[in-house]
Protein 1
Amino acid sequence: MSQHPLNPEETDALYEAVRTQITGKTFSTDDPTNLQKMIESLGDTRGITRLHFAEAIGAIGTPATPFLIEAVTHHPNAVVRRAAAKTLTLIADPTAVPTLVHSLLTDPDTVVRSSVIGALAKTGEASVPALLEILASSEYPEDSKGLATWALAFIGQDAQSHIMAAIDSPSSDVRTAVIGTLGTIVQETHDETAIALLMLALDDSDSSARSEATTALSNIQHKPALPKLIALLQTHIDPETRKAAALALMKIGDKNAIAHLEVALENESEQSIIPVIRLAIGQLHKKSNDPTEDW
């Protein structure tokens, strides 16, 4: 699709012409020439010009999607691929999801990949099955999985049913990402079903998933989790789980946890966990001695 690039004067003239047409609702998508020129102008050396064309193409909407898909997939100029992906963020067309996923997994340019994940996140629920598939696969790199996890958290409540359905995935990466997303959801909604799933996740077989659940519950200061967190702190074989439980107890802020933390401190054999438990005890003592906490 790559054409001969326009010079700055031609680019500026093109923008003024299409802007006038879009404003006057006379822009025609029947002739692809202008759209192709606009895509090429996404590679302009001037950032403000790229932004103007992205906004103009975004205003055109889904008729521009095939041109942007072609650019994201095949354009030799990484700047155009980046800007095309960012423009798809403005349109949020579900038909672009397969192309965006392909670019996330294969494009050599890191900025293209980060732009692509933004478009997937803004597309919302339609992106979730593909994001979960990336997380479940052992074939994809960790950076792609990290971006997919971020996108799921961004989509959050808009894809709650998909996310809840994946809580029993055999993939620990999927479960960890889902638990983290549920944590985002409950901070916004305090959804009881999501909270119940987080409570169940405290018994997950994977350390990272358990830690995500403890963090999520502590972020909403969910006091019904205290007995389970205390049990994890005092008896769990995994040091990271004990550490996460101590931090969660500190964040929930119930002074009744102090005695249990002190018992755990006496029994803790992992040197890296001892300072964390001491910190939790100190912070809870400080909070219990603060008279403003009663107001």
Note: The chain has a mean pLDDT of 93.
Protein 2
Amino acid sequence: MTENLRYKPVDAQIGAGFWYPYDNDAAAVPTKGYLYDWSVAANGGTAATTPVRGICPQGWHIPDETELQALLESPERPADFFCCAGYRIKNGPTDRYGTENKGMLMGVSDGEMCHAILFSDSAEPTLGSYPATYGMSLRCVKD
């Protein structure tokens, strides 16, 4: 996908694994998409087998680590491909947002950690693993 997912899952409630982009800004959804944690993105699925469709449209899936790495290395990726929508960090009883000039792009999870690309307006994107409870942007990959 060339844009962050803007799908509102049927039973999802804002603030429960599903958030507006940076600083809880509903007006930013049309351009930035929503933020999802793994439980909402996977729609109850697991990462035991891939691909994981989750909330992606029919014929699409959540990217695995190899697909995220290929995206990072692609010479065909447009310079403005990454859309900074912030991220939501769940740290014990505290929730907080990353700033609007940063973002995280979600990949599959082992249940505890998600593979994800961390990027910003001022740094090269990097692949890492982050808690599955974080809210991240999602771009699905065609099957």
Note: Residues 95 and 130 are 15 Å apart (CA to CA).
